[in-house]
Amino acid sequence: MKKNIFVINIKEKILILLLILFSLLINQYYGNKGVFPIDSFSHFDTGFRILLGEYPFKDYWVISGPFVDYLQSIFFYLFGVNWQAYVLHASVINILVALATFFILRNFNLNIYFSFFYSLSLAVLAYPSSGTPFVDHHSAFFSLMSMYLLILGIKSENKFYWILLPIFFGFAFFSKQVPSSYIILFSIFILLIYSIATRKIYWIKHSLLGSIIFILILFILGNLNAISFSSFLNQYILYPQTLGDERYDLLNIDFKNTIFHFKYIYLGIAIFFYINFKKIISDKNYIKNNNFYYFLIIFFLMISMILHQLLTRNQTFIFFLIPILIGFSHISLKQSKMNRNILIPLLILLCLFTTAKYHFRFNEERKFHELNYVDFDLSVKGSQIDKKFLGLNWISPEYKNNPKEEIASILNIKSHLEKDNRKKMLITNYSFFSGILNKNFYSPIRWFVENGVSHPLSDNQYFSEYRNFFIKIIKENKIEVIYTIKPVHASFLEEILGEKCIRTSNVSKILDVHTVLNCAIK
To answer: Fewer CB near the last or first residue (10 Å), C or N of the chain?
Structure first.
């Protein structure tokens, strides 16, 4: 009789409670330690704007993260628009992925304390590296939970997992197109082999039902929010492909980037890989064994995550894979004749070492947010900006030597925006002014990146559509002035509206105001 992962004893209940508390508290702590404005606030205002009735694709240009925005709006609705509710969003995802890992390891009858240890290690390395909601993390973690559902679906043949599978894939894809797309494609490949080798196709009808449910939800939400399919298609599917093509061209596969940088991930999967590869070679019927598919799922999960990191060239955040891979290596040892007395302690030591190493690098030093050379003793209370930032210890990379100067600049901007009663638009990487001032500043983009990641540039085939989108927002909301905070500058607006159709004046060292002339919207 197959083990039911939802039947738990008192020891498991206690460990689950501890895992929940730890996963929550560690992310809440590090989510309050410093900021990297463009990333740290990427969903603050957009989550708030959804509460005001403004939606992605329709009211602001989106190339990733609509699901994260909607989910953040729920947290703001339940807990108020404040920084702790914002960080809580990421903390809850950290809890979910840690619990999911605990349950999957227990389902393979791994010892309760080992399962707890590996899950706790994952909670250290998962969301705390960012601390705040971030599209790559959401996409990776919902993809990971999708892989767990795929494993459980094959293992138990329970229709519940197959129905949930496409729904979680949908959550992952609408958090960010990658790495979810790679993982979805690999999953289809695995299921194709599985169906041919085992002649089992029962999963198709259940997954089809889950897909229909998710598509219906999208359809209803799109209609309720008046989001056109063409806007979604151009912003989320077609335009990002023009960015992806450039990244494939720049893909750098060499020993340092591909092997050495991820060496501990490879060490984590080494035993699991060796045992399964040996069986593939020696047993011609292994393709019909469920263990073969568990191996493929975990292996291609790892490959997808590494490929994503190589292509994005962002700070590495996938070291959370190490405890998972070690956990499956540990499980595979139980089914082999290898020396467990030596190898299991080595696996535990590897997990301890890598968890401590990457904890200090990414959590303590906040490397993911470029804060690894910052003196956190210089941090300033975020509540000095607004009481909604209570608990946030403010320091950023650009003002690492003088965070008080940054706070003063932000307060000056806040005061100026409050005093100006004109209909105004604000474009900035400090994407929190709408939330703290309880006003809509109609930004056409989530954040500003000069290289075209946030919006199409003039040489892009989708620039004319973006320009029309931008002007439409100005017209519909009767915008009189546009405020920009550096690094956003006048040339950004001149490219869209025309150099002679805006009149720019300087307000402060980092704030400019641009009067929109009639010729800009004709």
So the answer is: N
Q: How far apart are CA 242 and CA 235, in angstroms?
A: 11
Please state, in angstroms and rounded to a whole number, the distance separating the CA atoms of residues 8 and 462: 53
The answer to whether 22 and 123 have CB atoms below 8 angstroms apart is: yes
> Is the alpha carbon torsion for 394, 396, 402, 403 positive or negative?
negative
Task: HSE, CB side, 13 Å, CA atoms: give it for residue 507.
Answer: 25
| Helix or strand (DSSP H, E) at 424 | strand 424-427
Residue 56 vs residues 37, 227, 402, 446, 452: alpha-carbon distances, Å: 20, 8, 35, 9, 18
Q: What's the pTM?
A: 0.95
Q: Is 359 within 8 Å of 373 (Cβ atoms)?
A: no
**The residue to which tokens 């105001």 are assigned:** 513
**CA 499 – CA 491 distance, rounded (Å):** 8
pLDDT in tens, 36-87: 999 999 999 999 999 999 999 999 999 999 999 999 999 999 999 999 999 9
Instruction: Note whether 369 and 40 are within 8 A (CB).
Output: yes
Measure the CA–CA gap between 354 and 316, rounded to whole angstroms: 14
Q: Identify whether the C-beta of residue 409 lies closer than 8 Å to the C-beta of residue 508.
A: yes
Domain edges within the chain = 100-369, 402-521
Q: Which helix (H) or strand (E) holds 474?
A: helix 463-476
Pure H helices in 34-134: 37-40, 44-51, 66-79, 83-107, 112-125
